[in-house]
Design a protein that fits this description.
Elements (H helix, E strand, L loop, with lengths): L1 E6 L1 H4 L3 H19 L7 E4 L4 E4 L4 H12 L4 E11 L3 H12 L7 E9 L6 H15 L4 E2 L6 E8 L2 E13 L6 E7 L5 H11 L2 E9 L3 H18 L6 E6 L1 H10 L5 H19 L4 E3 L12 H8 L5 E3 L7 H11 L2 H6 L17 H8 L4 H9 L2 E4 L3 H8 L4 E2 L7 E4 L3 H6 L8 E3 L2 H8 L7 E5 L4 H13 L3 E5 L2
Helix pairs in contact: 4-5, 6-7, 6-11, 7-18, 8-9, 9-10, 15-18, 17-18
Protein name: Probable tRNA sulfurtransferase
Family: Belongs to the ThiI family.
Keywords: ATP-binding, Cytoplasm, Nucleotide-binding, RNA-binding, Thiamine biosynthesis, Transferase, tRNA-binding
């Protein structure tokens, strides 16, 4: 099977050197994503498109298309058949078998995109092919506006491309083509969507989590960060950084006036984020804040919060309605994470300020022992995101097996969309519990059974197995064929 990759339109208007750099990066990302599915995949770079060719079977082809649809920089993925370009009559004979069945009882229009010098025009191709299809298929007629079926043909120099299926990509710039950013992620609806938007815009996005208290919350945030990286990160090397903030919260609760705590907590987070970004040579921070959504996110308060950072603070959602944020979370697959996230909030003001005054905030901060912030930063843990599961396994011994144990129950924790693309074929009993529901449903599982967690790449299953084993009560292993 061959695929034509149509890259994001904004790439095409760049200068030649920039366009070449972006397309090269896109080709690199495509190879990185697809080689886990088909190590023999071939990616060819052209000036106006990329070609992907694979000898994999139908199941792997579906997985490849799904992966390509989530690679930033791609507008369309076209499934194509290629032929040496002949005369107009020969073009008809190649198009006819590809569309005859789909045109039965349907209206259609032929669209031809052509590059190179030929003895015919694109309109002549459309007329010739359209007339033949109307005469030789069960189509009900030609309809140039809003047809039931669009017959796509592309001609590039001496090659004919007959397009079968057209899949919409997410657009944007290739991840890694723009500078890195550090995203402050909490696992709710907003920050994962903000992180996705920076990834889609080509920024290599590292994740920074402030642990206000609780292992469950940290594991939940690791899950959503892993999901975003696996789905949209194109295997870029990024870090997950966890900063223990319990002592910071305790200091705020005992030393800072109640109405100022929310703003000052955010300032403390930005101070730490700024220093982490400096060490990583990152020029911008990212948050999921949206103006006026909560008390700390008024324009005045955001201005006071940003005063402590020497770096640009990006807020992709700043003027976005909550309903639209939830819709985006649904579209990108993070809504269920947020809905099942074990949230923790240790700083809740009774009467929070919405118009913070910088001098008042700075005065309150004189009561805060800044050495606590230094300790939090010193105790921060940096882990390559693809090693999060291994980090958890180092804490507890979780057995990883390539063959299911007799009598064990396999728990397929993949996202339903992923499970549908590649159903698990084993003789054991299989439970389908998406990873974002596993923590809640694990309490109801019978204790007299051995459970083997399974996911596509083995990362999420290791993370959850470690977590469940730490809680005790279940016999848990990992199934990684």
């Amino acid at each position: 099977m061959k695929y034509i990759i149509k890259f994001f339109s904004e790439i095409a208007i760049k200068s030649k050197p920039v366009r070449r750099r972006f397309v090269d990066k896109l080709a690199e990302n495509i190879r990185a994503v697809l080689r886990d599915i088909d190590p023999e995949v071939v990616v060819r770079r052209h000036w106006d498109k990329l070609e992907v060719e694979t000898a994999a079977g139908p199941v792997l082809q579906r997985q490849m298309v799904d992966a390509l649809r989530h690679v930033a920089g791609i507008t369309y993925v076209l499934e194509v058949q290629t032929y040496p370009l002949g005369e107009l009559d020969e073009i008809v004979e190649h198009v006819l078998p590809a569309y005859a069945r789909r045109l039965e009882g349907a209206t259609f229009a032929v669209r031809c995109k052509r590059t190179g010098d030929h003895d015919f025009t694109s309109v002549e191709v459309e007329r010739q092919v359209g007339g033949a299809l109307l005469a030789r298929t069960g189509a009900t007629g030609v309809k140039l506006k809003h047809p039931d079926v669009t017959v796509d043909i592309e001609i590039s120099k001496r090659t004919l491309y007959v397009v079968g299926e057209r899949h919409r990509g997410i657009g944007g710039y290739p991840v890694g083509s723009i500078g890195p950013v550090l995203s402050l992620i909490s696992g709710g609806f907003d920050s994962p969507v903000a992180s996705y938007l920076t990834m889609k815009r080509g920024m290599r996005t590292h994740f920074l989590f402030f642990n206000l208290g609780g292992r469950d919350h940290e594991v939940g945030v690791k899950e959503v960060a892993l999901y975003l990286w696996q789905k949209y990160g194109c295997n870029q090397r990024v870090l997950f950084i966890s900063v223990p903030f319990e002592e910071v919260v305790a200091e705020l609760l005992t030393k800072v006036q109640d109405s100022q705590m929310g703003v000052i907590l955010k300032r403390m987070m930005l101070r730490v984020a700024d220093r982490v970004a400096e060490d990583l040579e990152i020029d911008a921070l990212v948050t999921g804040e949206c103006v006026a959504q909560v008390s700390s996110q008024t324009l005045r308060n955001l201005s006071v919060i940003d005063e402590v950072s020497e770096r640009l603070v990006l807020r992709p959602l700043i003027a976005t309605d909550k309903e639209d944020i939830v819709r985006m979370a649904t579209d990108i697959g993070t809504r269920d994470f947020a809905a099942n996230m074990p949230e923790y909030c240790g700083v809740i003001s009774v009467n929070p300020t919405t118009r913070a005054r910088l001098e008042r905030v700075q005065h309150e901060e004189t009561r805060f022992d800044m050495a606590i912030l230094d300790r939090a930063l010193a105790n921060a843990r940096q882990t390559r995101i693809d090693r999060l599961a291994e980090e958890e396994l180092e804490k507890l011994e979780v057995e990883v097996l390539s063959v299911p144990l007799a009598g064990a129950t396999i728990v397929d924790i993949r996202h339903p969309e992923e499970e549908e693309l590649a159903p698990l074929a084993v003789h054991n009993t299989v439970l389908k519990i998406p990873f974002y529901e596993l923590h809640r449903k694990a309490a109801d599982l019978p204790r007299d059974t051995t459970y083997m967690l399974f996911c596509g790449k083995g990362v999420m299953s290791r993370l959850h197995a470690s977590h469940l084993q730490a809680e005790g009560g279940l016999a848990v292993k990992v199934y990684a064929p």
